[in-house]
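Lab notebook: predicted structure, single chain.

Context: the supervisor wants predicted structures on file for every construct in the current expression panel, including those that have not yet been purified. This is the next one on the list. No modifications to the sequence; it matches the entry in the shared construct table.
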Amino acid sequence: MKFTLKEIAHLVKGELVGGDPSIAITGISGIKEAKKGDITFLANPKYASLVETTRAAAIITSREQLKTTRPLIKTDNPSIAFTKVVSLVASDRVKHPKGIHPTAVISPSAQIADDVAIGAYAVVEDGVEIGGGSIIYSSCYLGRCAKIGKKCCIYPHVSIREGVEVGDRVIIHSGAVIGSDGFGFAMVEGVQEKIPQIGIVSIEDDAEIGANVTIDRARFDKTIIGKGTKIDNLVQIAHNVVTGENCIIVAQAGVSGSTTLGKGVILAGQAGIVGHIHIGDKAIVAAQAGVTKSIPADTKVSGYPAKPHETALRVNACLQRLPELYKKMRELEEKLKSLEKKDKG
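Prediction complete. Output recorded below exactly as produced.
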């Protein structure tokens, strides 16, 4: 679909500065990769030098002054504005399946709203409920008595095990496994005996689950993914974990059993969290941090074991000086030996 600069400026409630309002926008791209006819955006000042070299037809920017003759659409939040444009310009690029494919295997006891789409070779077991407007792509598995809310999108090869509850407008990307058994074993007479995991997983409204994420069912009760929480690819969430609303969990992070996350928590890539602790509201765990104890709200931690970020920076600075300190220590040892020889002589 094509839109003019004037139409896009109106959509994002922005101010068009320079350029012909009737210019047609035919694509969207990053500021480096943009080509003729594309619209792009500038949110990070470090890329300001690219404004004069980009081939984009127009640039969405903040309302701050930017000295250029290039066509601009000035907005309060360039990133959010660009997101709206992406949804508009690229709306015809994604074609979701419609209707129920004849190869889908659906239990007669499943309750499926009239406007649900189910792709080829999907399996829907007994007692499953699927709300209106939801899309189940091909080769998905919905276990017995699983519940899928309204306007969800479940991409190919997702396994949603028995009893799992998924709220409204949830997106689950390919390869995710929701509701697999929690990792629970007990040593009995030298043998690891499996502890039954009879709880469920509950994913609340507007959450998004990345590709190849695993979320284990609770031993009892529920593993809960809070409303609006976004989970990146390759994340492991263990049994009985509870996340607050609007958390961000980045790729390859792992959260051990029975840990709770407050609202707005951010776990950066490859962060590791031990079990049975609490991460306070709006806390930030830096990439590759190893968290071994609870973290207060509004705190940033990093390192292993994780400690307040400022402390971790000082510790790291000292570590970087270790070779120099070691060299000085050896020099002092040699001087001490020399002095001891003189005393003996």
